[in-house]
Write a structure and sequence with these properties.
The complex is a heterodimer of chains A (116) and B (115). Chain A is an all-beta fold and 116 residues long. Chain A is 0% helix and 53% strand. The radius of gyration of chain A is 14 Å and the shape is globular. Classes of the chains: A mainly beta (116), B mainly beta (115). Chain A binds chain B through residues 4, 33, 35, 43-45, 47, 50, 52, 55, 91, 93, 95, 100-109, and chain B through 31, 33, 35, 40-45, 48-50, 56, 58-59, 88, 90, 92, 94, 96, 98, 100-106, 108-109.
C-alpha cells in the first residue's frame, strides 16, 4: 500500500536560515512519482517538483533543492536562505500506477514559519 | 486557457441538503480527481476518473457520488450533506504521459460548510 510520512508537523526558522523538509514514502511499485507541493495561506496548491522513480538525480532550482534517495525511500526538500514568503504548508506526495489511475497519496504536510 | 476551474468557490449547506460541485478543465486531460482537505491534514482522494464515462473510488468515497459524462467535466455530488463533509474540496486533472514535467493541475478549491 502507498504511504507518505512527513514527520515534521511544524518548523519555525528565522529568515535566511536553510531548512530541510523530510518525506519518507512506501510503495510496492517499481515505477512511481514523487511530488512536492506548496500551499500558501491563500489556499491554492502550487506544484514545485516531480521526480520519477528511475531518476535519482538531485536537482537545484534557485533556492530550492531536492534529495531523492531510493535506498532510504526518502525525498527531502531544502530551502536555502529562507524568506518570509516561503511560509506555507508543504506537502510531499506519491503517485504510482499499481492500482491504476495514477492516484496520488499526500502526506499530512509540514507547516513552515519563516520569521523576519 | 483557464486550466482547472471549480464552481462554486464557497457554499454553506444545511444537514440533509444536496449539492453538486463542478470541476472543468480545458487541457484535454484524461484523468480527473476529487480530493478533500480537512484542517491540519493533507489531501485525501474521494473519487477519480481515468476517462470519459468511467469513475472509481478513492480513499474516502462514502457519502459522495461522481460523474464524468464529458471529458472536460467531473462532477462531485453530495446527496445528503452531513457536518462531517465540511471541508475544502480540490479538483485536479492529469495527462498521464509520464514525462518529467507531467503533473497534476489543481483547481482553486471549494470551501463547503455543512451546518
Amino acid at each position: 500500500a502507498q504511504k507518505v510520512t512527513q514527520a515534521q508537523t511544524e518548523i519555525s526558522v528565522v529568515e535566511k536560515e536553510d531548512v530541510t523538509l523530510d518525506c519518507v514514502y512506501e510503495t510496492r511499485d517499481t515505477t512511481y512519482y514523487l511530488f512536492w507541493y506548496k500551499q500558501p495561506p491563500s489556499g491554492e496548491l502550487v506544484f514545485l517538483i516531480r521526480r520519477n522513480s528511475f531518476d535519482e538525480q538531485n536537482e537545484i532550482s534557485g533556492r530550492y533543492s531536492w534529495n531523492f534517495q531510493k535506498s532510504t525511500s526518502s525525498f527531502n526538500f531544502t530551502i536555502t536562505a529562507s524568506q518570509v514568503v516561503d511560509s506555507a504548508v508543504y506537502f510531499c506526495a506519491l503517485s504510482d500506477s499499481s492500482t491504476g489511475g495514477f492516484k496520488t497519496i499526500f502526506g499530512a504536510g509540514t507547516r513552515l514559519f519563516v520569521k523576519a | 486557457n483557464a486550466g482547472v476551474t471549480q464552481t462554486p468557490k464557497f457554499r454553506v449547506l444545511k444537514t440533509g441538503q444536496s449539492m453538486t460541485l463542478l470541476c472543468a478543465q480545458d487541457m484535454n486531460h484524461e484523468y480527473m480527481y476529487w480530493y478533500r482537505q480537512d484542517p491540519g491534514m493533507g489531501l485525501r482522494l474521494i473519487h477519480y476518473s481515468v476517462g470519459e464515462g468511467t469513475t472509481a473510488k478513492g480513499e474516502v468515497p462514502d457519502g459522495y457520488n461522481v460523474s464524468r459524462l464529458k471529458k472536460q467535466n467531473f462532477l462531485l455530488g453530495l446527496e445528503s450533506a452531513a457536518p462531517s463533509q465540511t471541508s475544502v474540496y480540490f479538483c485536479a486533472s492529469l495527462l498521464p504521459v509520464c514525462s518529467s514535467t507531467d503533473t497534476q493541475y489543481f483547481g482553486p478549491g471549494t470551501r463547503l460548510t455543512v451546518l
